Amino acid sequence: MNNASSMSADAISLCAYAKINIHLKVLAKREDGFHNLESVFQRISIADYLSITQSSDSHSCTVESPLLPLPADNTLTKAWKVFKDAAGINAGIRVRLIKNLPAGSGLGAGSSDAAALLKVVNELFAMPLTDSELIDLALQVGSDVPFFLREAAGIVSGRGEVFEPIQSRTDCFGILIWPDVQSSTKEAYSLLDKQKGILSGEYEAWGYEKLIKQYHDPLGKWCFVNDFQPVLEQRYPVIGRVRNELCEQGAEFAQMSGSGSAVFGLFSSENLMASAFKVLAKRWSWCKPFLLLA
Predict the structure, then answer these.
(1) In the annotation, is 131 catalytic?
(2) pTM recorded for the entire structure
(3) How far, rounded to the nearest angstrom, does the alpha carbon of residue 193 sit from its chain's CA centroid?
(4) Which of 21, 96, 131, 232 could bond 260 through an S-S bridge, CB–CB 3.0 to 4.6 Å?
């Protein structure tokens, strides 16, 4: 990221990388209405692009998003509001957003965009907030947002605010397919709550040691889970179809990310991934190769 001075002509541009959930357990519901989670988050090389400029003509956040119109209230305007209030800033910003990541895909795109905005505006306005203050603000915007201010891979627990970094693997090659289904987190939770009577909290976490050991095992030995996957595959059978096709094409591990609906497959060699991609890209219009980021 380039260094910004406080001159208003400066724009800072950066990538807001997506994440996949390699593992996702939904645990008991908390008193604040959120569920506790246990998840392995991993940043990947597919991103939205943002360019942010200070603007003196208003105090708001104006977002131009030519590829995908955003609602008036979105994670970027929300992130700007919490930042502006916390830092006591009397100015506005303009954001240009090139949206490559679909909404309702379980890739954390909106959260990543919000985290990118927090990082950039802190720089544009001469660093009024510390890293830990930014992380507190990020949690006000959404449960996944703090992750995007941290290392590329980690074990996330609590509501999403507890983070243990792990050494990121760089020996896998991925294919990500979005089957053009918009899955909302809210819908995913209500399907899960109905099916599991999950409110009683008998769902056990794996714990740090087991997660770390498994993450560094060979891909073929992975038995990570995503608690949302069975109920979402029932509701949208196309998700299961994508997962099966990734496995048929040689993925050693394939799973839905987050609350859906994107599905990733991981391969142990670049050649295996490339030959699978040739086949799958003909069948699925949104199909992209990726790397795990370190």
Answers:
(1) no
(2) 0.92
(3) 22
(4) 232
Place of tokens 């998840």: 39
Q: Which amino acid is at 103?
A: A
Distance CA 104, CA 141 (A): 17
Q: Rounded to whole angstroms, how far apart are CA atoms 231 and 193?
A: 10
Query: What is the helix (H) or strand (E) element at residue 289, kind and residue range?
Result: strand 287-291
Ordered DSSP codes for 15-68: EEEEEEEEEEEEEEEPTTSPEEEEEEEEEEEEEEEEEEEEESS-SSEEEE-TTS
pLDDT per residue over 275-285, tens digit each? 999 999 999 99
Closest CA to 255 of 212, 221, 223: 223
Angle between helices 109-124 and 75-87 (to 10 degrees): 30
Check 48, 113, 144, 227 and give the catalytic one: 144
Tokens representing 162 are 């507890």
Q: Identify the residue whose tokens are 């997962």.
A: 243
Please say whether the dihedral angle defined by the alpha carbons of residues 68, 147, 230 and 280, taken in this order, is positive or negative: positive
180 is catalytic: no
Candidate list 19, 78, 119, 288, residue with the active-site label: 19
Query: Cβ–Cβ contacts within 10 Å for residue 220, how many?
Result: 8
pLDDT digits (tens, 9 = 90+) for 163-185: 999 999 999 999 999 999 998 88
Helix or strand or coil: residue 154?
strand
Place of tokens 């406080």: 6
86 and 137 Cβ atoms separated by less than 8 Å = yes
Q: Would you say 121 and 52 are in contact if contact means Cβ atoms under 8 Å apart? A: yes
Q: Under DSSP, is residue 186 helix (H, G, I), strand (E, B) or coil? A: helix
Span 197-225, pLDDT tens digits: 654 545 789 999 999 999 999 999 999 99
Taking the C-alpha atoms of residue 223 and residue 25, their distance in angstroms, rounded to an integer, is 13
How far lies 63's CA from each of 8, 54, 133, 208, in Å?
Answer: 17, 12, 24, 40
Average pLDDT, the chain: 92
